[in-house]
């Protein structure tokens, strides 16, 4: 447990009193792609390991704890996985919670009760997240944003209503996998690329820091693939990066091997933008399932879960939670995999330490060049 902390060639970063030696946040990937196993592996190497709270109850995880009153299975299994992860690492652990899930407040409250180090909240504006904190809570609250405007809006709301300043921001650009906080038109627009957005958010967050006296690190994500990418993001003003796609192709990732192999096998042409049933564009590996869905050949007979507030079940071409669940279990013919824009560059499955070493070597080369 935590026997080997990876040595990063540059500086780490801090979120309040949390010291993170490796400036990498492993992005949350729902319905079991990033569960306890992956999060622990990253945390044990000095980054932030993140469990996705989305759809945990749909996984074949036996419930071994007594459910809290009012908790559904999703929340109970999340509590269990947080407890087990904490037994396996002394590193920094986070949970990723979609603001659009119906039990967002209950899920965040439970994660805080379990003592999670960080909550990352995106896929919508988590305007009321600080209401979940209890006196004495040490959990850090980190919104996932796509613009400086969103950073200002959330900070103003939290400060005005709760007297709480965000502990950090994750800025997610349009090259990310999964659901995107951009319109289809913005995704390829040069004005909305991560390298343009980082300085804008740095400026906005600097104003919040001056007003509040609180240090607020910026974590940049979406298309970050190499050590050079990490270095360049930091040169633009980011304190750390978020990476998700690269951690799928690791031995420690919680998804089925067939899911990981889909990343290894996919080409640049296989990656495209879809319109998700939750009302957002998303980036995914195109496959026969999505082709049939687009042609209207898929349709849920009934919505059994009602998991996402923005999902129009009666008009949806498929149930996204079912599709993602099938995929994570290796049944790609019945679902699909989200992926970042650079996912086609994945050519093999590594261990988490080997991946971090590759990133560190690339980062060190940039330091040497400069």
Q: And the CATH topology of the largest domain?
A: TIM Barrel
The residue ranges in which pLDDT falls below 50 over 5 or more consecutive positions are: none
Domain module count: 2
Helix amount, in percent?
Answer: 25-40%
How would you describe the shape? globular
Distance between the termini: 36 Å
Number of strands: 13
**Largest β-sheet summary:** 8 strands, parallel
Write the CATH homologous superfamily of the largest domain.
Aldolase class I
Estimated share of beta-strand residues: 15-25%
Q: Which structural class do you get from the secondary structure elements?
A: alpha/beta
Give the topology string: H per helix, E per strand: EEEHEHEHEEHEEHHEHEHHEEHHH
- CATH architecture type of the largest domain: Alpha-Beta Barrel
Highest-level CATH class of the largest domain: Alpha Beta
Overview of this protein structure:
- The chain is of the alpha/beta class and 370 residues long.
- The chain has two domains: 270 residues, TIM Barrel (Alpha-Beta Barrel); 70 residues, no CATH class.
- It is 35% helix and 15% strand.
- Helix 1 runs parallel beside helix 2 and helix 2 runs parallel beside helix 3.
- The longest helix has 19 residues.
- It is globular, with a radius of gyration of 19 Å.
- The mean pLDDT is 91.
Keywords:
three-stranded antiparallel beta sheet; alpha/beta; TIM Barrel; eight-stranded parallel beta sheet; 13 strands; 370 residues
């Amino acid at each position: 447990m935590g026997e080997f902390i990876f040595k990063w060639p540059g500086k780490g970063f801090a979120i309040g009193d949390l010291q993170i030696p490796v400036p990498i946040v492993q992005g949350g990937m729902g319905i079991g792609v990033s569960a306890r196993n992956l999060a622990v592996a990253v945390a044990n190497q000095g980054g932030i390991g993140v469990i996705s709270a989305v759809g945990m109850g749909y996984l074949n995880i036996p419930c071994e704890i007594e459910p809290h009153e009012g908790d559904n299975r999703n929340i109970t299994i999340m509590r269990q996985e947080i407890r087990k992860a904490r037994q396996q690492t002394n590193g920094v652990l986070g949970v990723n919670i979609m603001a659009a899930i119906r039990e967002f407040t209950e899920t965040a409250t439970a994660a805080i009760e379990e003592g999670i180090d960080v909550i990352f909240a995106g896929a919508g504006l988590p305007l009321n997240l600080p209401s979940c904190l209890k006196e004495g809570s040490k959990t850090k609250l980190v919104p996932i944003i796509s613009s400086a405007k969103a950073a200002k809006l959330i900070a103003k709301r939290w400060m005005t209503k709760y007297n709480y300043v965000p502990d950090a921001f994750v800025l997610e650009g349009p090259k990310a996998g999964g659901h995107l906080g951009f319109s289809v038109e913005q995704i390829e627009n040069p004005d909305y690329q991560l390298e343009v957005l980082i300085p804008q958010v740095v400026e906005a967050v600097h104003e919040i820091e001056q007003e509040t006296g609180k240090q607020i690190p910026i974590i940049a994500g979406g298309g970050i693939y190499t050590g050079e990418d990490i270095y360049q993001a930091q040169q633009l003003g980011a304190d750390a990066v978020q990476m998700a796609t690269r951690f799928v192709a690791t031995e420690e990732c919680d998804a089925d091997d067939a899911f990981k192999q889909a990343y290894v096998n996919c080409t640049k042409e296989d990656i495209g933008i879809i319109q998700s049933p939750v009302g957002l564009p998303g980036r995914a590996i195109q496959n026969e399932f999505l082709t049939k869905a687009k042609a209207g050949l898929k349709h849920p007979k009934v919505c059994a879960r009602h998991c996402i507030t923005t999902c129009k079940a009666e008009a949806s071409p498929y149930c996204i939670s079912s599709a993602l669940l099938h995929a994570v279990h290796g049944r790609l013919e019945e679902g699909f995999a989200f992926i970042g824009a650079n996912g086609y560059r994945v050519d093999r499955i590594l261990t988490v330490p080997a991946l971090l070493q590759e990133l560190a070597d690339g980062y060190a080369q940039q330091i040497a060049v400069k």
